[in-house]
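Let us work through a complete example step by step.
Step 1: write down the sequence.
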Amino acid sequence: MTLTALGFVLASKKSEITCLQQLLQMGELVGAVSQLIHVLQRERGTANIFLCSHGETWAGQLSERALQVQMAEQVVHQQLQALDLTGQPMGNAPRLFSRIAAVLHSLSTLPLLRQQIQEQTIGQPDAMRKYNEVIRTHLALVFEAADISGDPPVSRALLAMFSFMQGKELAGQERATGAAGFAAQHFDDAAHQQLLDLIDGQERCFQTFTEFADARCLALWQQQVSGDSSEFERFRRIACTRTTPDGEAGGVALRWFAVTTERIDGMKIVEDLLEDILMECCRKRIREAQVSLELQQQDVGQISQPENHYSALIPLQLSRAVLELVEQQSRQLQARDAELAELRATLTERKLIERAKSLLIQHHGMTEPQAHKTLRDMAMNQNKKLAEIADAMLAVSSVLAKKEGVTPRE
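Step 2: predict the structure and record it as tokens.
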């Protein structure tokens, strides 16, 4: 087969369409994972109230929550089975598939955890830590999906969704931590600080979300924020400042859970819109690329038609036409890469920070807010950027892991 410049111009556009179709598929997976995280968050909060009430509250709710998680798991499994593992490889496929493996492993730990909760052979802090780890592996998969995107509009949509999901997870941890304190009718200094860190973390994530979200999501989010109840703020102040909350323990805990669940369900509405916009963006970009391919095919056909004529001018005309087509596609790719460069820089920094936080969480037993605060304090003390501290920490971890003959976990 003769190799031609025109053939590779068309191949480039076809490859772009394939990548966009893979992103659409990843978007569907992200949507399924979003729903799974939502019901996992609710199961975690229910387990907290059950354990801190010594089994007196919501024993019957545990099986219902577990069933909701199992149903959401099935949808995720269906999306994973639909992934094409034999066709054109996705960008960063090794890390993506590693994240998927971690998700599947984390889900396999849930049956034993549920049994321990039912039998009350596990304490609330340990149960919450295990739920947090399961959810964290799911969020890492969403972040990896954002990292493989080579399309600026899709990357922005994925970054907005990941940041919002991360903020919603911290809101879920606040719900679970507060539920535990209200059910036990006691908040110690550590719990106060944990709640303050969770509130700070939510604001940080939602700020990043506002940088990348489109106008529709921002308007809906503002509507949700303005609708936060005064009762929620009152409960928040009690949880963050008082050692012993007022009122009957079980009733207060359930009311806190109901109020915070209403808030988180409102966040899920925003999250669902983010998912819809992501899918809309993927489909729009695929349509645009397909139209562009059809136009290119027409141009190639017109350029190729004069090949059987013998005018001395035709080779020169063909050369110019091919060059123009190649340069046109090159300009389009350059414009896309320029737009993507800033997003890539943001993604790279976020990736370093997330991996460094994972190390602190796994090896030092920190929560996500504690890990972020540790990195932030180190950055302030050394007058460096957060990403620089994270990069240095990962480099040291890699060196130590090599000396010990192990592969560092991410």
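Step 3: interpret the result. The CA atoms of residues 27 and 279 lie 6 Å apart.
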